[in-house]
Amino acid sequence: MRILTGIQPSGTPHIGNYFGAMRQIAEIQKKGEVFLFIADFHSLTTSPEPDALRKNVVELALNYLSCGIDSEKAVLFRQSDVPQVCELMWILNNVTPVGLLERAHSYKDKLAKGFAPNNGLFSYPVLMAADILLYKSDLVPVGKDQKQHLEITRDLAIKFNNQYGEIFTVPDELIPEEVAVVPGVDGQKMSKSYNNTIPIFGKEKEIRKTIMNIVTDCKGLEEPKDPDHCNVVALYKLVATPDELEEMKARYRAGNYGYGHAKQALFEKLWAYFEPMRKRRAELENNLDYVHEVLRRGAERAAVEADKTMAEVRKAVGLR
Ligand code: ADP
Ligand code: TRP
Predict the structure, then answer these.
(1) Are residues 174 and 108 in the same domain?
(2) Contact 295, 264 (CB under 8 A)
(3) How many folded domains does the chain comprise?
(4) Among 110, 136, 225, 263, the one annotated catalytic
(5) In-domain check, residue 196
(6) Which residue from 95, 157, 262, 308 lies 20 to 30 Å from 101 (Cα-Cα)?
């Protein structure tokens, strides 16, 4: 079974990304052959600064390799290193009804956010379909927000197969069971766009300071506190054992346990939790040649599959 997913390179990863996405992708390596690519062609739809895009691709590879992606098991590659995907996209464009793309939520959302309506944004789902179909993927793990893109992919695969013969695998989506939304330091969903994140790989001092700034109510030290509506406890739950969590909750209820104590406990747990990943990342940062080599090998492996599919597709549609 081939499992494929793509991730857009963007900035510093936070613990919401880890518990909401990265951990699941690392876990899924046990289920089948994972193709994981860094979607730099897709990133162009929002015109990132060129040097930042190049840098973010390497950063993303570093982050995933540090957080559990095994380069011996998974095929990690940069989307643009296998440009056959653009050729397939062009071919798929010709079985894509414009109305289908006009209904895409992601396109409408981008316009609502003020992005200029360029054709890259409009045809984003066709490139995503090409990503998935090029590698004959069986299963595509994605967040809920990508569900409609998967439906479009399936539509295009079926339309193409009806017209030209059974070439594409019609993929299934894998939407992870509802992962609790990780709250940010202000209690809203943790997100880069809200400036409320706790980075995975920050400096000790910076992370401690961020944790000390988590918003709580203003109950005094002696007062009993409500552990079920507290951002500190919600974050502690992600990194503590069930016993440790219960112990903290009991302390909250008993009083004489301040938010400062809870934040200190959270900091210590969180720091220890990500220690192996920090170590791995530091090693990889000192060995960027290895990271580039992983991406090169990944692209080589992916290209073998891409060439096989494209040979079938070209023949079917009447190209050389
Ligand atoms: P951000 O909102 O910080 O820009 P992204 O949209 O880049 O994060 O998210 C990348 C992945 O991380 C997505 O799969 C998303 O579902 C997951 N993720 C992001 N923030 C959270 C969060 N606060 N809780 C759970 N998962 C999250
Ligand atoms: N659109 C996806 C996102 O923003 C990234 C992506 C691009 C992708 N191509 C893909 C995900 C193919 C799964 C399969 O999250």
Answers:
(1) yes
(2) no
(3) 2
(4) 110
(5) no
(6) 308
For ligand 2, mutation pick of 38, 82, 124, 142 (most atoms within 8 Å of CB): 142
Span 294-309, pLDDT tens digits: 999 999 999 999 999 9
Choosing from 2, 3, 4, 5 the residue with most ligand 2 atoms within 8 A of its CB, the one to mutate for a pocket test is 5
Same domain for 59 and 164?
A: yes
Kindly state whether residue 188 falls inside one of the protein's structural domains: no
Q: What is the pTM of this model?
A: 0.93
Whether residue 103 is found in the same domain as residue 166: yes
- Is 55 assigned a catalytic role? no
Residue 310 contacts by C-beta under 8 Å, 6 or more apart in sequence?
84, 87, 88, 134
The CATH number assigned to the domain holding 50 equals 3.40.50.620
Task: Give residue 142 CA to ligand 2 midpoint distance, Å.
Answer: 7
Q: Does the CB atom of residue 241 touch ligand 1 within 6 A? A: no
Question: CA 117 to CA 22: how far, in whole Å?
Answer: 31
Domain of residue 41, residue span = 2-181+288-317
40 ligand 2 Cβ < 6 A: no
Q: How far is the CA of 17 from the centre of ligand 1 (A)?
A: 5
Three-state SS annotation for 202-245: CCHHHHHHHHHCCCCCCCCCCCCCCHHHCHHHHHHHHHCCHHHH
Task: Read off the pLDDT of each residue in 274-302 and give the average, rounded to a whole number.
Answer: 98
Q: How far is the centre of ligand 2, averaged over its atoms, from the C-alpha of 244 (Å)?
A: 37
Mean predicted lDDT score pLDDT of the chain: 96
Residue keyed to tokens 């653009």? 86
